[in-house]
């Protein structure tokens, strides 16, 4: 929690001390997206992902912000033996995006760095037999996508110490549109 508060403080200091400001777009925006998460590895199945990203437009091409995301992954399933195993990953990242165009359709590239928390659970015969709360790991997440008006489509690869996974998300942006 101390790391999250420190990251928030740094983002706000950078945001409000920046001399350049977006000329054609509103300063603040929030992205809300829902999508599919696919972990790498054999026998690992995908799941759902939900993210919330408040951002500050430094100028018309660059936005910085935070990403709060939760992804639920099914790692092993054996329905014949009534055995299920899964993981939940929460991420808290400092993000940046670069927009290539100032038009209705805006392709972008970006990245995020920060902390990932992982938990897992194993269920046999309808009862949880083990649950572990994983530690905090540092990670990196390059991303790319496009925004058309207030609609977003984003692909992102999360590189984490114990679990790498790809997410593809669609969502909407509140605020941040043309002035």
Main attributes?
mainly beta, Porin, eight-stranded antiparallel β-barrel, OMP/PagP_B-barrel, signal, Outer membrane protein X
Structural features, described:
- The structure is a single chain.
- This protein is mainly β and 179 residues long.
- It has a single domain (2-175), classed as Porin (Beta Barrel), CATH 2.40.160.
- 9% of the residues lie in helices and 68% in strands.
- The chain is built from 1 helix and 8 strands, in the order αββββββββ.
- The protein has one helix at 2-17; strands spanning 28-39, 45-57, 62-78, 83-99, 105-124, 127-148, 151-160, 165-175.
- It has an 8-stranded antiparallel β-barrel with strand order 1-2-3-4-5-6-7-8.
- β6 (127-148) and β7 form a beta hairpin.
- The radius of gyration is 18 Å and the shape is elongated.
- The model has no long low-confidence stretch (mean pLDDT 84).
| H/E series | HEEEEEEEE
CATH architecture, by name, is Beta Barrel
Q: For the largest sheet, list the strands in their spatial order.
A: 1-2-3-4-5-6-7-8
Largest beta-sheet characterization: 8 strands, antiparallel, barrel
Total separate domains: 1
Structural class: mainly beta
Radius of gyration from the alpha-carbon trace, in angstroms = 18 Å
Protein name: Outer membrane protein X
Organism: Pseudarcicella hirudinis
InterPro entries: OMP/PagP_B-barrel (IPR011250)
Keywords: Signal
What is the structure about, briefly put?
The chain is mainly beta. The protein contains one helix and eight strands; from the N terminus they run αββββββββ.
Sequence-ordered SSE layout with sheet pairings:
Elements: H1 2-17, E1 28-39, E2 45-57, E3 62-78, E4 83-99, E5 105-124, E6 127-148, E7 151-160, E8 165-175
Antiparallel strand pairs: 1-2, 1-8, 2-3, 3-4, 4-5, 5-6, 6-7, 7-8
InterPro entries: OMP/PagP_B-barrel
Organism: Pseudarcicella hirudinis
Keywords: Signal
